[in-house]
Design brief:
The protein is mainly alpha-helical and 67 residues long. The chain contains five helices and no strands.
Length: 67
């Protein structure tokens, strides 16, 4: 699949070198991006998957997010 190849071959070190401020600025400058407003963020509900809740209950450390 083309998307898989692009992700595998992408130079992630350039992304890793960006600061949070640079990433936010780039997202704001992208006409296809839509960052939620503070009001929209306040309306979101945090959903923790059941597996993560079970692991926490049984004392297992949380897994890192997929890279």
């Amino acid at each position: 699949m083309e998307a898989d190849r692009l992700l595998r071959d992408f130079d992630w070190s350039k992304v890793d070198a960006l600061t949070d401020e640079q990433i936010i600025a780039a997202a704001k400058a992208d006409p296809d991006s839509s960052l939620p407003t503070e009001k929209e963020l306040a309306e979101f509900d945090l959903v923790i998957p059941a597996k993560a809740r079970r692991e926490k209950k049984h004392g297992k450390p949380p897994k890192e997010a997929a890279e």
